Each structure stands twice: as structure tokens, then as C-alpha cells.
TrEMBL record:
<feature type="compositionally biased region" description="Basic and acidic residues">
    <location>
        <begin position="151"/>
        <end position="160"/>
    </location>
</feature>
<dbReference type="InterPro" id="IPR012677">
    <property type="entry name" value="Nucleotide-bd_a/b_plait_sf"/>
</dbReference>
<dbReference type="GO" id="GO:0003735">
    <property type="term" value="F:structural constituent of ribosome"/>
</dbReference>
<dbReference type="InterPro" id="IPR013025">
    <property type="entry name" value="Ribosomal_uL23-like"/>
</dbReference>
<keyword id="KW-0689">Ribosomal protein</keyword>
<keyword id="KW-0687">Ribonucleoprotein</keyword>
<dbReference type="GO" id="GO:0032543">
    <property type="term" value="P:mitochondrial translation"/>
</dbReference>
<feature type="region of interest" description="Disordered">
    <location>
        <begin position="141"/>
        <end position="160"/>
    </location>
</feature>
<dbReference type="GO" id="GO:0005762">
    <property type="term" value="C:mitochondrial large ribosomal subunit"/>
</dbReference>
<protein>
    <recommendedName>
        <fullName>Large ribosomal subunit protein uL23m</fullName>
    </recommendedName>
</protein>
<dbReference type="InterPro" id="IPR012678">
    <property type="entry name" value="Ribosomal_uL23/eL15/eS24_sf"/>
</dbReference>
<dbReference type="Pfam" id="PF00276">
    <property type="entry name" value="Ribosomal_L23"/>
</dbReference>
<comment type="similarity">
    <text>Belongs to the universal ribosomal protein uL23 family.</text>
</comment>
Amino acid sequence: MSRKLPFPLGRKEVFLPSFTITLLRTPRLPPRYATFIVPLNLNKLDIRDYLYNVYGITALSVRSYVQQQKVRHDRPDAILPRPRKWFRPRAIKKMTVEMEKPFVWPEEPEDFSLYVEDSEHKKNGLGWDKETFDAARKASRAENELMQPDADQKPSADRETIAAQAQLLLTGKEVWKPKWEDVGEPEEVEKELEFPKI
């Protein structure tokens, strides 16, 4: 016997949804609340229907709000960002659902090396590989800082190494040796050239 629901189910059947719903980790909310990032065209009835039909979760109430993004210089995918061309990214819609049963997030892993060192995981290409991820994120942030409009006003990263090299030269710990490239025999620059007649 089916249980009586506190809300009517939707009648529009969607077999292959073409949207993405993201569950956010919200430690400040009680366990009976879950927050999702949803498409802008999704409404409260759709999210309630989706959660019930896909996961069997009964939603008691739904709150939604649209979060506007900050205005920034040009598009993020622009090759040469223009400093005075303004661009506002698309807004983000978030929905907070009160569920009938509580949901508790699993604990975040603290030791990431265990999964990478295992030879079976390495062979299959599985594992966390957090060091590579952190290095890629750091390089991406450094690249983004170089693309900012005020990047030329900040001191360069090479400034400290150049200052350290100059200090070693001034104290006499290192001797400056010019490095010339050997390009071969000297050649006369201004010489008579014969061009073929056309």
C-alpha cells in the first residue's frame, strides 16, 4: 500500500534530464536541510518532484534564491581581457530543501597519500593524487593573477631572485661571467650582394 504524500506529484514525465543539480556541503545547516545549486529555470515544484522520483526523498518545504555574481573585467575565457569592458557572469540559483529524514555528510578524508601509494590504484589510474591537484590549482591562480588589469603595477616574481643574485655579486661570493653564444666565424655585414635579374 502506498503512503499518502503531503503534496501531489508532477504529471510531466522527464526520462533523460538535461540539467545538473549540485548538492552543497553546508555544515552550518541542521541535518534535515540540504542546499542545491540548480538551473535558473527550475522551480520549487520541479526540485520537490525530482528528489522524490529519483531518490525517494520527501521534501517538506523548499526555499530558493537567486545569487547575482560580481561584475568583472571582460569574460573569463577572453584571451586578452579588456580592462574597461564590463561583464557580469550568469546568476546562480540555490535551493534549500527541508527533508523528512536527516542526511549527514560523510567525514572529509584527511590522509590523501594512502590512496596514491597503493600500486593497484596507481596501475588503474585511481586515487586522490592531491599533490598534482594542488600544484595545478596554484599554477592556475598564478596565471590568473598575471591576467588581471593591474598585474603590471605589482612587482614581478623574479624580483626577489634578481635581488639575491645582485647581492651575491656585490659581496663577492660569485663572479660575473658573461655567457656569449658562439655563432661561428665573423661575417661582413655591409657587402655587395648580387641579385638575379628578372
